[in-house]
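Thread: quick sanity check before group meeting

JM: Hey all, I'm pulling together slides for Thursday and realized we never actually wrote out the predicted structure for the chain we discussed last week. Dropping the sequence here so it's in one place. If anyone has concerns about the input, flag it before I start.
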Amino acid sequence: MNETVTTTDDEPRDVRVLLVDDHDLFRTGLRNLLEVQGIHIVGEAASGSEALRIVRETAPDVVVMDLNMPGMNGVEATRHMSRDAPLTRVIVLTVSDQEQDVMHAILAGACGYLLKDASIQDLIRGIESAAVGESLISPHIAGKVLQHVRSTTASPDAAETIRAELSDREVQVLKLIANGKDNAMIAGELHISPKTVKNHISNILMKLQMENRIQAAVYAVRSGIV
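JM (edit): ok, ran it. Output follows.
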């Protein structure tokens, strides 16, 4: 599920970002790196509860979220944001590559998951992807998550739901999402436009009642259709 931002018919726009991490030095360094690259930082928070307050006040496009913080952790904060501020996208940036942490974050509504050893370019791609409804997850993490899902869960009911709710073309798109294809790759493989791909994905998420494509990919793998 490694996805990078792709060219769309949308014009580039100023993305407003909130940084959430309980280490002041890390936040300051990250802020400086991102601002040099032209990213607009609207605020910083040292805890999940503080992040929720700032999200209510500033409505950022993207939140870069650490997981392990005192008080309200990143997963709980992400869950609240997904429910109360659905237009704000959350990317997790953490040291943890544990499958359980990844799954909890994704199921809470995170649309990206990167490790703190990622490059600044990877983080910027993740921020820009999230801002336009795309997803980015480290390849190392993606492989572990899908392997974990395949080995520990199976849901025949999910397969029935997918086949009942989705058109044949939407099933094709869902399978490609679960195999880590981005919009441009899906468009090329199915010989359709990127805009049509985006429409299909919107329909898939609506019909399956999923918040983002990573959740849809996990659901597809659990169903056994991939």
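AS: nice. Residues 16-146 form a domain with the Rossmann fold fold (CATH 3.40.50.2300). The chain has eleven helices and six strands.
JM: adding both to the slides.
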